[in-house]
Amino acid sequence: MKIFILMKAISIILVTFNSSTHIESCLDSIFNQSFKDYEVIVIDNASTDETKSLLKAKYRDVTLLENSENFGPCHARNQGITKASGKFILCLDHDVKLLNNFLENMRKAIESQDTIGAAGAKILMVNAKTIYSTGIYPSYLWRFYDIGSGREDGPGFREKKYVFGVSAAAVIYRREALETIKQNEEYFDEDFFYFFEDVDVSWRIKKRGWHLIYAPDAECLHISGRSRNKDKISQYLCMRNRYLLIMKNESSRGLLRCLIVFFIYDLWRDLFMLIVNPKYFLKAAFEVIKLLPRMFKKRAREGFI
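Now predict its structure.
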């Protein structure tokens, strides 16, 4: 007797943590799409508000995974991807609202070429006029920025193009591409916890020979505004994860150039952070040193020494 497993084209992964304010808008925008060949998997990181009760009462078609504590977005997304059956994996932030034909246009973008490993959406701010992200690019100082962030949407953001990276706020991955970067049952590197984890995935996918594109026809709103805050904890995670990201992914020749950049730019910037945020600077520095051996082991596993 043969057993047939019904697979969906797209598995949509959402991570929640006290997300009751925005999760309804996000899910309603998904279920209102004309494209219906998808499943929705929500991973809740121990919410203490009404998120879980709301999901259970109103969205019974959603697969809900409940964690006993907040393991962070990376661990939760990995749980969702492991559970997913789709050929394509769509990751969304809980406060993203999809506009018309978003799912169909994302599917068309990722399927337009067999070499495309990921496609990023046009992510707009809540006013639907200002760009949140149309991709991620690295500067010559190894800083990573959202393309078009803060600029008004216009003709310059209406063309599909290759990009270095894509924001995890709204991105679709080819499952095959994710499998090529999987290490120790992880797709998103859980050492990052939060911040730069999407850049890390993008960079590793590129190193495996896949292309990443920006899909301008797939539009969505990032309702609560910017997620890259300037609070002290965010500063600590950004500093820590940026160094881990570079050490893990940059070429050996590139790492030598990084030393020059460090003494010209980073050293003085880090000294400033030590003065204004000494507690989290020291925490970040300690964790970078502690995690460096693990980062080099991971790059060695990928054959990128």
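The CA atoms of residues 24 and 58 lie 9 Å apart.
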